[in-house]
Request: fold
Amino acid sequence: MVTDSRGLSGPILEEEVELSLRELCHSCRVETDFVVALVQEGVIDPLGPQTARWRFHGHCLTRVRRAANLQRDLGINLAGIALALDLMEESDRLRTELARWRT
Reply:
């Protein structure tokens, strides 16, 4: 359960959802090879050791979509995508923290 700066609260679905590799690819409109490359680069972490049985937490959905957008829109390579995603998430975290201090 999380409460935002407006006082709204609810469960974080991304923490409760698990997707198969196929479901993740379909939801993000990406090829399997792209997701495998993101795993190899450390951008997302699958649950389970075997590719055929990989499961992904819901937060991977957001990371894969952002990664696909960065590659498509800006032509960023995988190492750049990993760095950009980490910086974007840190920026989001800091904005959330700053919003808490302002209220």
User: Anything to note?
Assistant: The mean pLDDT is 86. The chain has one domain: 2-98. The beta strands are 2-3, 9-10, 18-20, 55-57.
